[in-house]
Amino acid sequence: MTSTSAKNGDVKDGAGSEFLAFTLGSEEYGIDILKVQEIRGYEVVTRIANAPEFIKGVINLRGIIIPVVDMRIKFNLGTPVYDQFTVVIILNIGGRIMGVVVDSVSDVTTLTPEQIKPAPEMGTAFGSDYLVGLGTVDERMLILIDIDKLMSSGEMGLIEKLAA
């Protein structure tokens, strides 16, 4: 399995990479569209005892128990508000299915390597290890997240144990 890395500028065929744009608070983020399996409206999750706060719980997705992470809690972006715009993005990361709760999704954006700049080293809500870079389209800026790295980090290993 090959992966494209916008960080190195080796996007296949010189074409752009597609990112699903979503919001958390006042910021707009992007994740590789190829990791997205589906987008669902927010539904109540079953809480798991002793799970970290950012792990909302689990949902039953067509017979499969899926762990759900609230990205607003994960990134310390204030108290989440669940409304008609709140969605769960179902991701397939290395064969593991999981959901992430975000405030809303806006669109799928294609970015060329020239539109992706390295993320500046500064105190962000999460480590720069998880950043691909900053994507710019006209006046719009997307914080591009390496969802593979984020979801395979040590603490996310808890998710698999909880879902088992």
UniProtKB/TrEMBL annotation:
GO terms for biological process: chemotaxis; signal transduction. One of its GO terms (cellular component) is cytosol. It is found in: Cytoplasm. It comes from the Bacteria. Coiled coil: none annotated. PROSITE patterns: CHEW. SMART domains: CheW. Keywords: Cytoplasm. This is Chemotaxis protein CheW.
